[in-house]
Amino acid sequence: MATTGLTRGMGSFFKKCEHPESRWGKCPHEYKIRYRNAAGRDSPLDGVKAPQYDPKRAVIPSVSQFHQIREAGDDTFRLITDLMTGCGLRNGEAYAVNVNNIVADDVYRVTEQVNQTTRDYARLKHRKAGEYRDVPLPARTRRSIEQYADTYGTMDGYLLRNPVDITRAMPHFVIDRQWRRIKKSGLADIPEGMVLYRLRHFFASNCLSNGIPITDVAEWMGHRSIDITFGIYRHLMPGSISRAAQLLDLGLAA
User: Fold this and answer.
1) Do the beta carbons of residue 142 and residue 136 sit within 8 Å?
2) Partners of residue 98 on adjacent β-strands
3) What is the Cα–Cα distance from 237 to 229, expressed in whole angstroms?
4) FRET partner for 162 with CA separation of 20 to 30 A, picked from 5, 50, 65, 115?
């Protein structure tokens, strides 16, 4: 097994196979790298701590602020806000709303999103193609979907389409432009630093303040890890430790 040195003496690369070094360019086997620094350690990554995810505290509108924001937009904007606050959908997931995804009176099935770059339907974030997640569907949000469908119709079940070409998905900029106009108009009391995406934080806040387990909230919001959910929304559960202490005390006294 031959080896070839890396530049500046940082180590060497090689292949664990029977082919000579002169054949490595055409050899199908993978290259291996053995690092070596000035201190004689095997890897420059030894002792390096991986960066930790440190989410910022969520900016969440109050109920009053949400209703002001909702009423400042048109019917399409109101539908989007209802889906994000009622079902916890991401922006792109809300743009792909489909009446056929109402799988029960109180369950909406999130199956796809509108990709911001391609402006077409795509798989969900952190999901493989064909995977989905079921989320709660409040009666108020279901009525919003059904009323919009009755008023504007659907195409293959989709409610929102490209205003220029109705055969295509509605692109993100349609709502983004309206959101910027609402912020500029001063028609709504919008919390400082809030972006449209924060409307789904309202959903999480509503769930957690009503005692719904954070494990369920994490699943409904489509987070890759519950650590993400906990890091963002822990401050919404200020009484959890105190309540646990009370319950444990009752159990010990039984």
Assistant:
1) no
2) 158
3) 12
4) 65
